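for the recovery benchmark. C-alpha cells below, seq after
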C-alpha cells in the first residue's frame, strides 16, 4: 500500500504548485503566454534529460507508446485550460472543480476497463459534482438568483481531460516505468507550452518585465516542485489502482484551501483571494462535499 502515502504527498506538493501558478500568472507575468514560455523551456529540457537517462524499453508494443503520448497530450490540454483560468479566477475556486477528475476516471473505467459502478459510486459522483457546482456558483444580488461562473464549463472540461489522461497513463504504466511516463509528459508539456508561447512579442514582454529575475526565479522553483509532484503522481498510479490513486490526489483542494487561507491572512497581496465569512463557509462546505464524494468512492471501491 505504498501508493497511499505517495499519492497524499503528491496532492500536498501539487497544491503548492497551484498556489504558485496562480500567483505567477495573475501577479508576476504580463500575460499568460509570457508565463508559459519559461515554464515550457524548463519542462522540455528536463523531459528530454529524463528520457535520455531512462531510455524507452525495447520491444514495447506500439500501442503502448501511442497511448502514453496521447495521454500526455490530453493531460497538457487539461492543464492549459486550468492555468488559463487562473488569470482571472481564484485558485481556491478552481481546484475543487478541476479535482473532480477522479469521478471521470471512474466513469471512463466502465467502458474502457470493464468496471462496474454500484449505487455507492453513483452517490459519490452526485455529491462530488454538487460540491463543484456549489463552489462555482455566484449569487446575483440584482436578479436574486444563482448563476454559475463562466469558468465552470472550462474547468469541467479540464477535469474530464485529466481523468482521461490518468486512464491512459495507467494503461501505459503497466508496460513502462513511471520515469518513462514522466519524461514523455514533461517533454510534451514543454513542447506544447513553447508551441503556443514562443514568439517575438512574448519574448519582448518578458524582457520588459519589472522584477523579471524574481519572476523567473520563482518560475524555476515552481516548476521544480511541479516535477516532483508529477513524478510522485505517476509513481502512485504505477503502484496502485488508478481510481483510488486519483481519488487521493483529488484531495488537493483541501491543501490549496489551507495554503490560500494562510497566505491571505499573512500575505494578502500574494493571491487574489476574496475572503469573507460567507465565502469561507461556502468554500469549506464545497470542498467537504468534493472530498467526501471522492472518499465515498474509495470506500465504495
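predicted aa per position
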Amino acid at each position: 500500500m505504498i501508493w497511499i502515502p505517495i499519492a497524499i504527498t503528491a496532492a500536498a506538493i501539487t497544491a503548492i504548485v497551484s498556489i504558485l501558478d496562480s500567483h505567477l500568472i495573475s501577479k508576476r507575468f504580463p500575460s499568460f503566454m509570457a508565463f508559459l514560455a519559461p515554464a515550457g523551456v524548463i519542462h522540455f529540457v528536463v523531459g528530454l534529460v529524463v528520457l535520455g537517462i531512462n531510455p524507452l524499453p525495447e520491444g514495447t508494443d506500439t500501442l503502448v507508446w501511442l497511448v502514453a503520448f496521447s495521454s500526455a497530450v490530453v493531460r497538457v490540454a487539461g492543464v492549459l485550460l486550468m492555468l488559463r483560468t487562473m488569470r482571472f479566477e481564484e485558485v481556491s475556486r478552481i481546484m475543487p472543480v478541476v479535482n473532480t477528475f477522479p469521478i471521470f476516471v471512474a466513469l471512463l473505467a466502465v467502458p474502457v476497463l470493464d468496471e462496474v459502478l454500484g449505487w455507492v459510486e453513483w452517490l459519490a459522483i452526485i455529491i462530488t459534482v454538487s460540491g463543484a457546482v456549489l463552489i462555482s456558483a455566484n449569487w446575483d444580488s440584482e436578479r436574486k438568483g444563482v448563476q454559475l461562473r463562466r469558468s465552470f464549463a472550462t474547468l469541467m472540461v479540464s477535469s474530464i481531460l485529466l481523468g482521461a489522461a490518468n486512464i491512459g497513463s495507467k494503461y501505459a504504466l503497466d508496460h513502462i516505468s513511471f520515469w518513462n511516463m514522466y519524461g514523455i509528459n514533461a517533454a510534451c508539456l514543454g513542447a506544447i507550452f513553447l508551441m503556443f508561447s514562443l514568439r517575438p512579442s512574448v519574448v519582448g514582454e518578458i524582457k520588459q518585465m519589472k522584477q523579471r529575475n524574481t519572476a523567473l526565479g520563482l518560475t524555476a522553483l515552481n516548476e521544480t516542485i511541479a516535477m516532483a509532484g508529477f513524478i510522485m503522481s505517476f509513481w502512485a498510479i504505477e503502484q496502485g489502482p488508478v481510481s483510488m490513486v486519483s481519488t487521493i490526489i483529488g484531495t488537493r483542494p483541501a491543501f490549496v484551501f489551507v495554503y490560500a487561507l494562510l497566505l491571505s491572512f499573512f500575505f494578502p497581496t500574494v493571491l487574489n483571494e476574496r475572503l469573507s465569512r460567507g465565502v469561507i463557509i461556502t468554500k469549506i462546505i464545497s470542498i467537504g462535499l468534493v472530498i467526501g464524494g471522492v472518499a465515498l468512492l474509495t470506500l465504495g471501491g
